[in-house]
Every structure is written in C-alpha cells, then in structure tokens.
Amino acid sequence: MLTKKFLRQGEPYVWATSLALSMILFIVFLLLYVVLANGILVFWPKEVSQVTMTDGGLVLGEEIRQEKDPAGGGKRFQFKVGNRDLYGLDFKWVDARMVKTFSRPEDVYVLERQEHGNFYGFLRELQTPGLVIPAEKSMSLQMARDVIEPQRAEVSKIEKQIATLNRKVEYSNSRLARLRYKKEGATPAAAAVRAEIEEFKTEFDRLVGILNGKRTIVAANVAVLVDANGREKTIALADIVRCYQPNAMSWLEKCSYYMIRIKELLVAEPRESNTEGGLFPAIFGTIMLVFMMSILSFPVGVIAGIYLREYAKEGYLVKTVRIAVNNLAGIPSIVYGIFGLGFFVYGVGGQIDQLFFAENLPTPTFGTGGILWASLTLGLLTVPVVIVATEEALGSIPPGIREGSQALAATKFQTLTRILLPMASPGILTGFILAMARAAGEVAPLMITGVVKLAPALPLDTIFPYLHLDRKFMHLGFHIYDIGFQSPNVEAAKPMVYVTTLLLILIVIIMTSTAIFLRNRMRERFSVADL
Amino acid sequence: MSHPVNPIMSVDNPQVAVEHLNLFYGAAQALIDVSFGIPKSQVTALIGPSGCGKSTFLRCINRMNDLVEGLRVEGLITIDGENINDPALDVIELRRKVGMVFQKWNPFPKSIYENVIYGLRIAGIKERSVLEQAAEQSLKKAALWDEVKDRLHQSAMGLSGGQMQRLCIARAVAVKPEIILMDEPCSALDPRSTARIEQLIRELRDEYTIIIVTHNMQQAARISDYTAYMYLGELIEYGPTQKLFTVPERKETEEYITGRFG
Fold this sequence. Notes:
The complex is a heterodimer of chains A (531) and B (262).
Chain A: H1 2-9, H2 11-39, E1 49-53, E2 58-68, E3 75-80, H3 84-87, E4 91-95, E5 99-103, E6 109-113, E7 119-128, E8 131-134, H4 141-181, H5 188-219, E9 222-226, E10 232-236, E11 240-244, H6 251-267, E12 270-271, E13 276-277, H7 280-311, H8 316-328, H9 333-356, H10 371-395, H11 399-407, H12 412-441, H13 444-447, H14 476-485, H15 490-526
Antiparallel strand pairs in A: 1-2, 1-5, 2-3, 3-4, 6-7, 6-11, 7-8, 7-9, 9-10, 12-13
Chain B: E1 16-25, E2 28-38, E3 43-47, H1 54-61, E4 71-79, E5 82-83, H2 91-97, E6 98-101, H3 112-116, H4 118-122, H5 128-141, H6 145-148, H7 161-174, E7 179-183, H8 191-204, E8 209-213, H9 217-223, E9 226-231, E10 234-240, H10 241-246, H11 251-257
Parallel strand pairs in B: 3-8, 3-9, 6-7, 7-8
Antiparallel strand pairs in B: 1-2, 1-4, 4-5, 9-10
Helix pairs in contact in B: 5-7, 7-8
C-alpha cells in the first residue's frame, strides 16, 4: 500500500532521471579530468633526480611514475633519461631495491635539442673558435645560447627564404609544363618563365652559399656536456632549442618557462616526428577545415531545409526524403570517407586534372586528397544535421506569424526572408553548432581524403594563388591518432597526445561557445515565447 | 435545404458582393450557397455558433484560404466589381486593399516601429520620413500612439495582449487598405482591452469597410451596422443590426440571439 503510493508520487522516476544525468556528467568529467590532469602540466618543468644505484651506477632523469614490478618483487620507477643519441632509449626502469640514494643536483641541465630529444647532464665547457671556457668560469649555457641566437635566427631566416624560393620554382615549373603541354614551349612567354626559373636558381645558389657559410660559423660554437656517468657529448649551441636548470629554478622562472612552451605549442612547427615542438600547422588545418566545411555545407543544408519545409508539397516523396536525410546521420563516417575518395578525389578531382592540370599528369593535382575534398566530405557528413535543424526551426514558428505577414501583402518569399529565417536562425545555428562540433572531431574520413602527419606547407600562404585547396593538411584529431599509435617513440609522444587532445577540445569549445553566444543573442531578439 | 432569398440580403451598391459562394474542404462543404452584399464604410458583423463557417468566409475575402491545401471555392466574390478569384488578379494587390486582423495577435519579433511599417517596407517604400509619418498616423488611428511613442524601437514582444492586438490593427491600417477583416479580434482579451478595441472599431468605420467575425452577440449589437447570422455554412439572415436583433425575420435567428440555441 505504501509502496504503491510511493510509486505513484513519481519520486523514483525523478531519481532515475537524475541518475542518468549524473552518469553522463560523471563520464564527461572523468574524460575531461584525465585529459586535463595529464595534459595541463606537460610543459611544467619537472625537477631532475639523480639516483645512485647499489652497483655504483648513476641514473639522471625525470621521474615519470612508479609501479609494482610486474616481474614480482617490489616497486620500480620509470625515469625519462633522454640522451637518446648516447643510450638509444629515452626511458629507463629502475628497480627500487637497487636504489641507494636520491639527490637533486642544482647544476643539472636539461637541453631541448633540434634532434635526438632532451639531453640531461652537466656542463663541462664552452668552446668557441680559438677559445675554451671551463664551466666554472663561463656564463650559463642559456646565456651562451642567447649570444648566438641572432646568428641562428639569421640561418633559419635564410632557410625559410630558400623554402619560399623552392615553392616559387615549383610554381614556375608547373607554368612551364603547362606551356609545353599546350605546345607553346618555344614562345616568348615560355622563355620568360625559363628566365625566371634561371633567376630563381641563381638566387638559390647565392642563398645556399650564404647559408653554408653561416652554418659553419654557428656550428663552431659548441658546448661540451657530460651525462651522469661522465660520458662526454659535444652539442652545437645552435642545435639547442632551449635549456634550463630545473632544480635551480624559482617558481616564477618555472611559470615563464611554462608560458614559453605554451606559446611554442601554438605558433611553432612540430619537431622530432611530431613528438616535440608546436602544433601550429595542425591547429591551422583543423580550423581551416571546419571553416571551409561550414562555408561549403551550411548554405546547401539551409536551402534544402527551407525547400523541404516551405515549398515541397507534403507527400510520400517528401516523407521518404526526410527519412533518408535523418538516416544519413547514421552512416559510419568512414563510408563518407570512401565516398569522398571515390567521388570527389578520383571522380571530380580526376576530371579537374584532365581538364586543367593535364600537363602535370600522371602526377595528380586535384586528383589526390586535399583540404578541399576533405572539407566537402565533412560537409556531406554534417549536412543532414543542418537540414533537420533548419526544418525543425521553421516548423516551430507559430502559423499565425506566416498568416500575419502574408495578410500584409507579403509574398511567400518575403515572409521567408524577412520574418521566418530571422526567427528560425537560433534553431539553425544550433544545427551549425552540432555540425561544427562533429566536423572538428571527425578523423576517419579525413585519413583517406587528404590529412597527413606532416604537411610541408599550409593550405593558405603568401605565394600565389594564396589559397591552395589542393594541398594536404594536418589535423589535430589525426595528430592524436598519429603520435599516439603510429609514433616510433610512443613513450615520448604520450604527453603530446594529451596536450593535443586538450587543445582539440579547447578549440571545439571555443568555436561552439562563440556560436552558442550568437545563438542566444538571436534567441533573445527573435523570441515569440509570449505569443 | 434552401431558403427563399431574403430581400434585405442585398444592399444598394455593395462594396463586397458575394454570389452563390460554395466552399469545400476535400469532400466536406463548409460554405453553402452564400450570397450577400457588404456596404462600404460600415461595420458588418458575422455571427453564429462555432464552426458555422464565418471565419472561413472571412478568409475568402482576402484569399487567405489559398494557403490551405485541398480547399476549393466556387461562386463569385467581387470587390468594387472586380472578381477576386480571377486567375489574372494579383493576390498581393488584393491583400493590400483588404487588410486582416487575427483572433490571436501575431506581432513579429521586431520593434514596434518595424511591425507597423512592415507592410510598407514589403511594398518597397524606403523614405524614412514617409515611414515615420505612416507609423505615427497608424499608431494614432489604432489608439496606441500615446502608450508607445517613447519606445517605438523596443521589441513589440514587451506589449500587453490588448496593446499587441491594437498594434496588429495599426499594422493593417498602415498599408491604407479599404477593407479590414477582423477575425474575433477580442476573443482572447480582457473586458477593458475589448472595450478599447470596440471603440477603435467605431472610430475606424468612417474610413474603412470593416467586416468582423464575433461569437459575442452583444459585441455585434454594440459595434456593427449590419449583421449576418450564419449557421452550418449557410447564411440564415442578413440585415441592419438593429432590425436583426429586434425583429429578426427568421425563427432560427431569433432562437440564436435570444440564447435559446447556439
């Protein structure tokens, strides 16, 4: 009797609903926690420990974690010892029973290098042509590095100039190939292009000459370091990206180091098969992909939704189309990828090559994966969401509004553009938000329509024709997969996986919250809740 | 069932003349052989029980029924001698001439000002001075000016129900129609707002031909010059309001207006 009354009151159902919500929230927060906990402190400088072993050996490195030895016995520690060029591996397990003492030497250096990952060790001396300065008398390694920084910057500037030049030559070559294909290889126009290429080549040789000279000068400045066990290693100052003494750093210094690393992450190119350096090309690729996808798919989706709701005569055909559109959202994304590959890349792209870039064949221009095809594929994937959202938004407008407008001698089209679309815009924007979030997180279809692990150039740059829709691009989602599962050095790449994930989530949050902010403003403006 | 033609059903020089109007929703017939004339610059009320076809009839006059699928009209409706169902007639022109106010107020989610001048903007009028003048005049005619003149550019959604309905009247008036159709404009309003709108209708009578559907017989008696009583899709009786309410010719009318039926 009491239970019956209890059930009738509905309390248990309220609990069930709140339970369902808390479960979802729990999982979401767990995911965010894991990503944040692992990702946010990757760039915080960790202190370096020196372990003295019972057998007299020394291990120098960052303690990564400890766990129970799977081979039985006690605990074991994992250290990131770096010095890949000396040891072959960056990581080392240390059996806790073998440890005699732990210490934190103040003068230990951590070097981030252009190659071979980090170096952990101590400075012995600095060498510059004709001069050897022992560590006790020398300035700090960081200062020494800063001294040669202007020269190093010059070197990388020239390297960039050479890269730009290369791309210009590439472009001129393709123009020449086109002229030759049109059997105009002997015309003055072709001669002009040839002369241009010759000019580029002279410039190229000149730059390479300068570069080699500068490189030799810069490379003569080296630091001699030793590892924990006294093995010597000579490192060119120019190869050091950054160096610091974590055990001697104050909290403020650590903060500034952290900010520098974050900046590097956002603006620099990746190094060391993507496990180090920045993510700029991937960030750029992701945002540009979503942006292009939006431009290509949203207008089509909105127009299709308008037609279905406002103009199509309700009947079996429209019902079938509606069901089909709704079901499109349920197709696995890889299927869209395969369709994109077959239709856009090989079909449309192949045709474009035949018609406009025949001179390059058999090397494909548009007939291979690129950002345009990837955007179109993603557009196809997200367009059903936009159609459904548009239809629902238009459908939820009270019929009196339409009649009111038409009774004032507005045509159907005027009613649509002046009243209905503004009123439907918050709902349509909701569709955009869902579509954008989905597109930003989608990886599978990209893998076969144009994403690469390392793109030589961005799809948008300063070389004519500026927007290179045929170029391949990098993407944060694919980056996660690539460094997490395809990297030659998985252990070293792990922190980067978390950082990339965190970044991707942040970008999605920023993009969608902008859209949500816009939507809420429109909702306020066009609400007819009082009617 | 056919009634002998009531001699009063035709007035001299009607502005809107309806002849043998039949209307079908698919197979169902909603209006049966309706014929009468509506005089210019008078208030004509359509009364009758719910579902008798008075709203459907009203929506025939500005062809709002075009929007309804599966609806078919037979017979003739002329306004100033022009057949409004003529395929060559521009329905937009017709609706400019015949404004409409709905039972449920339906202002657009725009500012008060934009609501009033919506019809003018649609007609392509761009001069600011013209629009502003029209907005002021229309709001004054709709007896709303004093209440909203200080917040013309605020959202119309902040108005009360009665104000919104008067805004809808102002909006209809702004396009300078000749005829205004009103579909139970007061049925969702409190007595005070109703009184204001009734007074407004009386004031508008001089300039416009008003055809109003109401289920409130007292209202019809108060505001209209002519009254038509409809029942089950047929026009039962039509005549000067005073006569219809005091000495109805037909028994059905008498039963309805005295409350014994309906």
